[in-house]
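Exercise 7b. Backbone tokens:
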């Protein structure tokens, strides 16, 4: 049985979509099993942090640091109203 390739997650700089799947042996190319997981990934981050909380992401090796804040917003009125 062939060894299972490790799962990679990354963001396309062109489409700004998040993909999960396998990469080539040199790590430069996505293989055919890549899947767009943008919505699932973002919802997982929201769930992990939780509404009303902030999460600081500190990079190592002198890289930039980031802070993610999750705020719940009301649904637009058109989405909550029943149409006649």
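Sequence design result:
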């Amino acid at each position: 049985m062939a060894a299972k390739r490790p799962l990679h997650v990354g963001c396309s700089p062109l489409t700004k979509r998040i993909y999960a799947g396998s990469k080539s042996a040199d790590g430069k190319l996505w293989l055919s099993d890549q899947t767009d997981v943008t919505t699932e990934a973002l919802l997982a981050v929201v769930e992990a942090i939780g509404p009303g909380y902030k999460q600081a992401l500190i990079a190592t090796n002198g890289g930039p640091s980031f802070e993610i804040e999750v705020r719940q917003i009301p649904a637009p009125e058109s989405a909550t109203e029943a149409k006649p």
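Instructor comment: Helices lie at 38-49, 77-80. The mean pLDDT is 82.
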